[in-house]
Write a structure and sequence with these properties.
Blueprint (H helix, E strand, L loop, with lengths): L1 E2 L17 E4 L16 E4 L4 E4 L5 E4 L28 H9 L4 H6 L3 E7 L4 E12 L2 E9 L3 E4 L18 E4 L2 H9 L5 E3 L17 H5 L1 H5 L4 E3 L5 H14 L4 E3 L9 H8 L1 H9 L2 E2 L8 H14 L10 H4 L9 E5 L6 H16 L3 E4 L6 H13 L13 H14 E3 L10 H15 L3 E4 L15 H19 L2 E6 L25 H4 L3 E6 L9 E9 L8 E8 L4 E4 L22
Parallel strand pairs: 1-5, 10-11, 10-12, 12-13, 15-19, 15-20, 16-17, 16-18, 18-19
Antiparallel strand pairs: 2-3, 3-4, 4-5, 6-7, 7-8, 8-9, 13-14, 20-21, 21-22, 22-23
Helix pairs in contact: 7-8, 12-13, 14-15
Length: 589
């Protein structure tokens, strides 16, 4: 559907909105829902297109909805198989009784039984059936057979269990349908369960397990408080952290289960209804900004005692790992002379992090335009085959499709058409959105000098850079995102031998605060007086936390055909840069 104005489509877009994306109430479905004022529609005022994340309706000005952004295109899900309601047999009622779930409550929640094929058993088996319902329509089922065997309908949409119970004041999130029913037994109706449980502790790529958050983003946006009542085990802790990171810690409470209890149903079975109510009512806030207690950090302290310091994720190059690893929640500043390969090395590093650890990234890289060319270069790095014709065999179309599909899952580009929006405030707002929707672990800002300054006339550039970098670092810590910031040096002058010096962070154009505020600082250096040498030096000039790395230098061999890097056989050696670069030194500023 197309029109000439948003008003004619019944969509309220504030005059002068620059977005590019603004939230609005859907004129198709909101009037018929209980939460009529939830802004479930995204409107891109730059391209003139809109989509509702609740009902999927898309529209636009002058037909522009035909080119909706890929991120807005709602996947096509299969309709689940029909499951006829039938009385609960004795075995089902007996099992529910052991979990202290009344038959009447289970039936009211739509629980039934069916014979269903279970892949784990390679056979049909009787199973309890839990319907997953949105606005009264069943979109999926969870089947539970004996022996804790589970499955859901193939190709059907994953959403919260008990989604229609959500109210705006408080929602309890647990990790199983029986836990959800246990909370209902205790009188908590606004409770939901994640569809697939917690991700495995060693899982490197679990972004897809949280797509249910994006599917009902509009409904969740209006919730004032979430109580995270997930399982008390390592996967549950991982789930709790990711939910808090995506939903916003300021809206979340933590539940502490009694000794010997892993979840809500354990408490109900072992201690009864009143104790379960006490536990949920006693949920505590996530640490308040600026006020942190030992109690709130005790789990982290015990983990530190048991496992030691957390070093960070491998870069994918063992030689680089000796000096630098990548830890979420930190700010790394990258510097180098023009054409030294700063941007390309950062791209290669993010490719390794995505490939090895399943990280996803937001990319603000306005110098790498057109964007499709940058995307093609990332495909090139993934396939390790040239994109273009040349002396080396290029990738074929199948390899292109495979590479593009992989890049699509791990990298998301930020680039508003209006250059006045190229500022830190806009980038961080979009990055927060990408944390909620895509679970990004990394953010690339490349380069700093392309950003619009918002310092005004009452602040010096040094003051502006200091405050802005502090804001970036706060974002990194709050959302557990590693931010890579690429900066250019000031004009460099040749030394008495006619060579340009190796720049350090104090040489960054604009302010010495690029060194002071960074957690890590890296210089990318190439000797342009010896172009026969394809080596690129990675010089680690600042490490704030010793467990992350140490100061020093390592060389990688540049592969021009695919713009990638490989290890160079070498003995360990350090960068002879004086006291400021002593290997193993700790930078405490």
């Amino acid at each position: 559907m197309s029109a000439t104005t948003w008003e004619s489509l019944g969509i309220d877009v504030p005059p002068g909105a620059i977005g590019p994306e603004v939230a609005a109430v859907c004129s198709k479905c909101s009037a018929d829902r209980k939460k009529r004022n939830v802004k479930c529609m995204s409107v891109n005022v730059e391209i003139g297109a809109a989509v509702c994340h609740h009902c999927g309706w898309s529209c636009g000005l002058n037909g522009s909805q035909e080119s909706l952004p890929p991120a807005w295109r709602r996947p096509k899900y299969k309709q689940p198989r029909e499951v006829a309601k039938s009385p609960l047999p004795a075995w089902a009622m007996g099992w529910l009784a052991t979990r202290r779930i009344p038959d009447a409550l289970a039936v009211e929640a739509g629980v039934t039984v069916d014979s269903v094929y279970m892949p784990q058993l390679e056979d049909f088996s009787p199973a309890l059936v839990f319907p997953y319902v949105r606005d009264g329509v069943t979109v999926n089922h969870k089947y539970r057979a004996k022996g804790k065997k589970f499955r859901m309908d193939t190709g059907a949409e994953r959403i919260f269990y008990n989604l229609d119970s959500i109210n705006e004041s408080q929602v309890i999130i647990c990790e199983g349908e029986v836990d959800c029913l246990s909370l209902k037994v205790a009188g908590f109706d606004s409770c939901v369960s994640v569809p697939d449980g917690a991700p495995a502790v060693n899982a490197k790529d679990y972004s897809s397990k949280f797509e249910f958050l994006e599917a009902d983003e509009g409904r969740l946006a209006g919730v004032k408080q979430f109580v995270l009542a997930v399982d008390n085990d390592e996967p549950g802790k991982l789930l709790e952290e990711e939910l808090a990171r995506r939903l916003g810690r300021e809206r979340c409470l933590q539940v502490a289960w009694p000794e010997g209890c892993k979840d809500a149903n354990d408490v109900l079975v072992l201690h009864g209804i009143e104790r379960l109510r006490e536990v949920i009512d006693g949920a505590i806030e996530y640490p308040i900004e600026g006020i942190i207690t030992v109690d709130s950090q005790m789990d982290a302290i015990k983990a530190l005692y048991k496992n030691g310091l957390d070093r960070g994720a491998s870069t994918g190059w063992a030689s680089v790992d000796e000096y630098f690893t990548v830890r979420p929640g930190e700010l790394t500043v990258i510097i180098g002379t023009p054409s030294s390969g700063k941007s390309n090395w950062v791209d290669a590093l993010t490719m390794n992090l995505a490939n090895l650890h399943g990280w996803t990234f937001g990319m603000f890289s306005p110098e790498n335009q057109p964007v499709y060319d940058h995307m093609a270069r990332m495909v090139e790095k993934f396939t390790e085959l040239p994109f273009r014709e040349g002396r080396t065999q290029r990738m074929d179309e199948t390899e292109l499709e495979v590479g593009a599909s992989w890049v699509r899952e791990h990298f998301f580009w930020l680039l508003p058409k209006n250059e006045e929006s190229w500022n830190i405030a806009w980038i961080l707002e979009q990055a927060k959105l990408m944390v909620r929707r895509k679970g990004i672990r990394g953010l690339i800002i490349d380069p700093w000098n392309e950003l619009e300054s918002e310092r005004g006339g009452d602040r010096t550039e040094t003051e502006y850079v200091s405050r802005t970098l502090r804001t970036v670092r706060q974002f990194a810590r709050e959302y557990c995102v590693h931010v890579f910031l690429v900066v250019h040096p000031t004009k460099m002058y040749r030394d008495k031998n006619g060579k340009y010096p190796i720049p350090n962070l104090y040489d960054a154009s604009g302010s010495a605060n690029f060194r002071n505020k960074a957690d890590n600082g890296i210089c990318i250096w190439r000797d342009f007086d010896n172009l026969d040498n394809s080596n690129v030096d990675i010089i680690v000039q600042k490490i704030r936390f010793r467990q992350v790395g140490r100061l020093g230098k390592v060389s990688l061999e540049y592969q021009p055909a695919t713009a990638t890097y490989k290890e160079v056989a070498r003995l360990p050696r350090f960068y002879p840069g004086g006291a400021a670069y002593n290997p193993g030194a700790v930078d405490d500023d």
